[in-house]
Design a protein that fits this description.
Region (Disordered): 108-133
Structural class: alpha+beta
Domain LysM: 41-85
CATH topology of the domain at 94-110 and 126-255: Glucose Permease (Domain IIA)
Helix content: 10-25%
Oligomer: single chain
GO molecular function, one term: metalloendopeptidase activity
CATH architecture of the domain at 94-110 and 126-255: Distorted Sandwich
Strand content: 15-25%
Distance between the termini: 94 Å
Largest sheet: 10 strands, antiparallel
Number of helices: 3
Order of helices and strands: HEHHEEEEEEEEEEEEE
GO cellular component, one term: cell outer membrane
InterPro entries: Cell_wall_metabolism_enzyme (IPR050570), LysM (IPR018392), M23ase_b-sheet_dom (IPR016047)
Shape: elongated
Number of strands: 14
């Protein structure tokens, strides 16, 4: 009798197992999709920022940013001012023409200072632009340091908007072309001590992670002039991060620099 019960239990167990195996398997449904990055529509000016550095931060053309916010050609902004970022860049980069080193022509022009109206009392200092100085830039470029490329430009997704150049602490950082310094500071996250040089209405270049800045906003620099010393500010190793922008958009510096 016990044997019969044992056999019946075995048969029931086998039937249950067969039923489970015939049921279709459904993997658990998990939504791993991430929401798209939140688009930022405005920026509140912090002390030390310039219109150029704000445009650089958001990959925008400084001229379009000024026009969208009613900022006059002197590009004066002040801490606490709200900057509208709802503009678009559609200008494609031009064909690269490498020319002879540019000549620098200094011509003093009175700066146009426009102070936007604001309500309430505030002790914030108005961020005045440097004295406007025009330079003649022929469009040629030179290497910003005598060192090797260790990281390349990647336009896909904006992962790496320039090139990294390996050097030693204190190595000379040179202006890649004639122009005017429009930003000198450490207010852009991830860039450390940064210089931005305006070469023309279209082109700007940037030099990041410096240990020491040797020029200030408003200074006119010549191609090849020492403007900083290499360092590791804002990063984990000594290097120069070099970028070129055309109408606010990152372009590959290796398309402009002379072949080594």
């Amino acid at each position: 009798m016990e044997q019969v019960r044992w056999l019946i239990n075995i048969l029931i167990a086998l039937l249950l197992l067969q039923g489970c195996s015939s049921a279709p398997y459904r993997a658990p449904v998990t939504d791993v999709s991430q929401p798209p990055p939140r688009k930022i529509h405005t920026h509140v000016v912090a002390p030390g920022e310039t219109l150029y550095s704000i445009a650089w931060r958001y990959d925008l053309d400084y001229k379009s940013l000024a026009a969208a916010n009613g900022v006059a050609s002197g590009y004066t902004i002040y801490p606490g001012q709200i900057i509208n970022l709802n503009i678009s860049n559609t200008t494609p980069p031009p064909k690269v023409l490498k020319k002879n080193p540019p000549a620098v022509v200094k011509k003093k022009v009175p700066a146009v200072v426009s102070t936007p109206r604001r309500s309430g009392n505030t002790s914030s200092t108005v961020k005045k632009p440097p004295e406007v100085t025009t330079t003649k830039w022929s469009g040629s470029w030179q290497w910003p340091c005598k060192c090797d490329v260790i990281a390349s430009f990647h336009s896909n997704g904006g992962l790496h908007k320039g090139i990294d150049l390996k050097g030693d602490l204190g190595d000379s950082v040179l202006a890649a072309g004639a122009g005017q310094v429009v930003y000198a500071g450490d207010g852009l996250r991830g860039y450390g001590k940064l210089l931005i040089v305006k070469h023309s209405d279209k082109y700007l270049s940037a030099y990041a992670h410096n240990s020491r800045l040797l020029v200030k906003e408003g200074d006119v620099v010549a191609a090849g002039q020492k403007i900083a010393e290499m360092g590791s500010t804002g990063t984990d190793s000594v290097k120069l991060h070099f970028e070129v922008r055309y109408d606010g958009q990152p372009v590959n510096p290796l398309n402009y620099l002379p072949k080594k």
